From TrEMBL, chain A:
GO biological process terms held by the UniProt record: attachment of GPI anchor to protein; GPI anchor biosynthetic process; proteolysis
Pathway where this protein functions: Glycolipid biosynthesis; glycosylphosphatidylinositol-anchor biosynthesis
Active site residues according to the UniProt entry: H151, C193
Keywords noted in UniProt: GPI-anchor biosynthesis, Membrane, Signal, Transmembrane, Transmembrane helix
Keyword Transmembrane helix: yes
Organism listed in the record: Nothobranchius furzeri (Turquoise killifish)
Entry's Gene Ontology cellular component terms: GPI-anchor transamidase complex
Subunit structure: Heteropentamer. Part of the GPI-anchor transamidase complex, consisting of PIGK, PIGT, PIGS, PIGU and GAA1. Interacts with GPAA1. Interacts with PIGT; this interaction, via a disulfide link, stabilizes the expression of GAA1 and PIGK and links them to PIGS.
Pfam family name, one: Peptidase_C13
Signal peptide, first to last residue: 1-22
MF (Gene Ontology): GPI-anchor transamidase activity
Protein name per its UniProtKB record: GPI-anchor transamidase
From TrEMBL, chain B:
Superkingdom classification of source: Eukaryota
Alphabetical GO biological process terms: attachment of GPI anchor to protein
Upper taxonomic lineage: Eukaryota, Metazoa, Chordata, Craniata, Vertebrata
Any Pfam family matching the protein: Gpi16
Annotated Gene Ontology cellular component terms: GPI-anchor transamidase complex
Record gene name: PIGT
Protein name listed in UniProt: Phosphatidylinositol glycan anchor biosynthesis class T
């Protein structure tokens, strides 16, 4: 009897311990990454760059460092010669908020933003000389936020007015990421016309997707600024930015609040979302699980010692040595082994020779 | 005690950081500000044990130097074009866009592979598209771009030069550049570097130069020098609101409160040579320090503000220099050498590149080395190359030409031309435009394609004797180019980049052709196929309901049906 009671207490204690341990690791991720892409070129697409930069700003403010953000901007709006206020990108009329800021690091810019580079970043298949800041070095405990904006249609998203990515390609890229264990959970947000068509084809687990409009609907822009002359932001991202400005790193808002951002009355289009592939209940997922960051800090106190340099005399060189240049000897060309053409020519010559004069002359050569 | 102080001195002389700002009012009312930050470090990157403790020298650049065995690295990002006729000569010239030239050490076996990797790494460090530098825009100059640091011998196989004229400079390039400074942008002169004011200017250029230099006059020891310079020209009308009055606050929207604590010297120089008795402009707060330096062949006088002295900041604890003009200035000293370049011709098939060089010296002639790197899609006809001065033919004493290879290598043309005194020399060459494959066009091909600036290197005769001893006491802006002789100084002039239109196809044509072909096939072949294979069968019409019931009853009765 007593043994049974002790056993029961022990089991309860284990379960309690498990529960607290479980709560500590409830979200299951150890690092956060963000891939923010603006796919449009030309000055009149200013609003797409402003969209991406406002999400970049929120994500940086909530804790994700530049080394964990891959920012791709297809055109430069801030230092564009049409911009009346250089080095600024505004999101609100009357230039209230400069989302470009003073501390921005764009990883892919201009012509580098292509479908190929985007898919290579997601799947990790980059050439070996790619620097770290241009890679998505996520592992199976990473939560990744992917944000796309630009011009799109039913089933595709246009990159730089010259190529497009289809929803099937995107779904396959995510499946590659899942099979290579490159993410723990993925939040996909897209702000384009008919954005919901882009997440229709996803089939990998642990993906949650949000879009600014349904199939058949257009996403609309928010407000023009008369001094700059273009529309500054898209509606969905404008209200998303307003929502995120209220979030701080310790906030407890969950995904259900995010789904309510920009109802039809404000957005004119109907935002959609998809959670059937996601294993956890959206109500238990915090906004900061994707927009904020969990970071590891390592401190080291070592200091190595340096050695002294050897003694030797040096001198500067003439910048324009005229006499030397005029009397320059021809350069030593590096010796290259004869290439295919020369070898073929010699083989032909030898063949003709032996055909004409017979094989007995071979002994004179070898 | 003595041992401790000696080792502290040792550590102190190992590193040195200096910062300075030179402000030169220009004749047109604009103002030219040049920041120079120099870090000297006595170390050896090339030995086996890797250097791992970095104090003032940025670690990212130190690792780049040791990994790729770089002897010298010069990179510049520029927005705008330097107008030599209106502004004079800059302290450090740079072409529009991005320019990178590197001297590798003799120990490098595969220079091209190291160059490719180096450009990728630098594109990550500076957030720029330097990864677009490949064999189609890299050249190996044979006589220009001699090393600016100390070296034993120069073999031009270890030099690579590339330029990206299309590269845009914005805050994302300035941010990592500022992070390389020892004090960052938190203290010293770098607090003035605010992007909103810097990019609202006529000319902006930021550069990084790494080279080995002599430590002292005897040159027994060498140290690595990292120079970061930032040149900016503020326009009278856009930044100055039309009023001829400049102050640090008006230019940078900030004032100075302290020098960088890690700097051994932190100074501001204002060029007052044209204002000896304060008759043209007035400088406040007044400073007793005056310094003279020979720079760009001229002896200039500067008022100096030493930020390491507390008295410079006065009672308000902040320094806001104010330059107020009283009357308009007289004439400006004409620059002795400047150049222009333009494309002549019409249509989308052929054209002509003209490079015009002006020698404004009244009686001296001097040699210039012209370097032209033209992309492969402009096919130069070198037999049409002509060099004329004052209407007569002027044969260059040295020509090095490397023809281009389609999609692999650009044209490289280097010529040593003697410019006669007070003359205009024109270099013309005809070219033909190539048709690119449709995947090689950029997403906005109707903008045009850029051709990089020509580089003109010259030894210009100097009116004042130049100082050939490179010592530490010279201000930074006058000690960049090493001086070998006293009667001339080295100058580099960049021309404008060219923008040429290539014949551009209509990119919607593949889509149009597919639609049209499919329609023609469907309508034409489809109708023919139907005509040939369709067979007609007679079908009974459906009888009416009454007839159907009557037939049904008749069938039951076994009586013949109605028709």
């Amino acid at each position: 009897m007593l043994a049974a009671i002790i056993m029961l207490i022990f089991i309860c204690f284990c379960v309690h311990f498990q529960n607290t341990a479980g709560q500590f690791f409830s979200s299951g991720h150890t690092n956060n990454w963000a891939v923010l892409v603006c796919t449009s070129r030309f000055w009149f697409n200013y609003r797409h760059v402003a969209n991406t930069l406002s999400v970049y700003r929120s994500v940086k403010r909530l804790g994700i460092p530049d080394s964990h953000i891959v920012l791709m901007l297809a055109d430069d709006m801030a230092c564009n010669h049409r911009n009346p206020k250089p080095a600024t990108v505004f999101s609100h009329r009357n230039m209230e908020l400069n989302v470009y800021g003073d501390d921005v690091e764009v990883d892919y810019r201009g012509y580098e933003v292509t479908v190929e580079n985007f898919l290579r970043v997601l799947t990790g298949r980059l050439p070996p000389s790619t620097p770290r800041s241009k890679r998505l070095l996520s592992d199976d405990r990473s939560n990744i936020l992917i944000y796309l904006t630009g011009h799109g249609g039913n089933g595709f998203l246009k990159f730089q007015d010259s190529e497009e990515i289809s929803n099937v390609e995107l779904a396959d890229a995510f499946e590659q990421m899942w099979q290579k264990r490159r993410y723990n959970e993925l939040l996909f947000i897209i702000d384009t016309c008919q954005g919901a068509s882009m997440y229709e084809r996803f089939y990998s687990p642990n993906i949650m997707a949000l879009a600014s409009s349904q199939v058949g609907e257009d996403s609309l822009s928010h407000q023009p600024d008369l001094a700059i002359g273009v529309h500054l932001m898209d509606r969905y991202t404008f209200y998303l930015l307003e929502f995120l400005e209220d979030i701080h790193p310790a906030s407890k808002s969950n995904m259900n609040d995010l789904f309510k951002v920009c109802p039809k009355s404000q957005c004119v289009s109907t935002p959609g979302h998809r959670t059937d592939l996601f294993l956890r209940d959206p109500g238990s997922v915090l906004i900061t699980d994707f927009f904020g960051s969990v970071r590891k800090v390592e401190i080291t106190m070592e200091q190595p010692y340096l050695l002294k340099v050897q003694e030797k005399t040096y001198s500067y060189v003439d910048q324009l040595p005229v006499s030397e240049i005029i009397h320059q000897k021809p350069k030593q060309k590096d010796w290259h082994p004869p290439d295919g053409f020369i070898l073929g020519l010699w083989t032909l010559i030898l063949l003709v020779f032996f055909k004409t004069y017979g094989i007995k002359h071979l002994k004179h050569i070898f | 005690m003595i041992v401790w102080s000696q080792s502290a001195l040792q550590l102190a002389t190992n590193y040195d950081f200096q910062e300075e700002l030179v402000i030169r009012p220009l004749h047109s009312g604009d103002i030219y500000a040049s920041f120079q930050f120099r870090t000297l470090w006595e170390t050896d990157f090339m030995r086996e044990n890797k250097v791992s403790h970095y104090r003032l020298f940025p670690k990212s650049l130190g690792q780049v130097i040791s990994k790729f065995s770089v002897r010298e690295l010069h990179i510049s990002f520029t927005q705008g074009y330097w107008r030599t006729m209106q502004w004079g000569q800059p302290f450090l010239p740079s072409p529009p866009g991005a320019e990178l030239w590197v001297w590798f050490q003799d120990s490098v076996t595969d220079v091209d592979a190291a160059w490719k990797e180096l450009t990728n790494v630098l594109s990550g460090i500076f957030c720029a598209s330097l990864n677009f530098i490949d064999s189609t825009n890299t050249v190996q100059p044979s006589a220009s771009f001699k090393p600016l640091g100390i070296v034993n011998e120069t073999d031009h196989r270890f030099l690579r030069y590339a330029t990206l004229p299309r590269e845009i400079v914005c805050t994302e390039n300035l941010t990592p550049w500022k992070k390389l400074l020892p004090c960052g942008s938190k203290a010293g002169l770098a607090v003035l570097l605010k992007s909103e004011k810097l990019f609202h200017s006529s000319f902006f250029s930021q550069t990084v130069h790494i080279r080995p230099v002599c430590q002292d006059r005897e040159c027994k020891t060498t140290s690595w020098e990292l120079r970061q310079t930032l040149n900016v020209v503020f326009d009278l009308h856009t930044s100055g609101q039309g009023k001829r009055e400049w102050s640090l606050f008006k230019m940078f929207s900030r004032t100075l409160t302290e020098a960088c604590p890690l700097a051994s010297s932190s100074k501001i120089y204002i060029d007052v040579t044209d204002n000896p008795q304060e008759e043209y402009f007035e400088l406040s707060p007044a400073t007793p320090l005056l310094s003279q330096a020979v720079v760009l062949g001229d002896r200039r006088t500067f008022s100096v503000y030493d930020l390491t002295q507390q008295v410079t900041f006065g009672t308000v604890r902040s320094l806001n220099l104010l330059i107020r003009w009283k009357s308009t200035e007289g004439s400006m000293l004409r620059p002795l050498l400047h150049a222009e370049r333009y494309v002549a011709g019409y249509g989308l098939q052929t054209g002509e590149i003209h490079t015009v060089m002006y020698n404004n010296h009244p009686f001296r002639s001097f040699p210039v080395l012209l370097l032209d790197s033209v992309p492969w899609y402009l096919r130069l006809y070198i037999h049409t190359l002509t060099v004329t001065s004052k209407g007569k033919d002027n044969t260059p004493s040295y020509i090095h030409y490397q023809p281009s290879k389609d999609r692999m290598r650009p044209h490289l043309l280097e010529m040593l031309v003697q410019l006669p005194p007070h003359s205009v020399t024109e270099v013309t060459v005809q070219f033909e435009r190539a048709l690119l494959k449709w995947t090689e066009y950029t997403p906005d091909p109707n903008h045009g394609f850029y051709v990089g600036s020509s580089v003109i290197s010259a030894l210009v005769p100097s009116s004042v004797a130049m100082d050939t001893n490179i010592t530490q006491e010279q201000p930074l802006f006058s000690s960049f180019f090493p001086c070998k002789e006293e009667s001339s100084y080295f100058v580099r002039v960049y021309t404008e980049p060219l923008l040429v239109n290539l014949p551009t196809p209509d990119f919607s044509m593949p889509y149009n052709v597919i639609c049209l072909t499919c329609t023609v096939v469907a309508v034409g072949y489809g109708s023919l196929y139907n005509l040939l294979t369709r067979s007609f069968q007679i079908e009974e019409p459906n009888p009416r309901l009454a007839k159907k019931i009557a037939n049904f009853i008749r069938r039951i009765r076994g009586v013949p049906l109605l028709s």
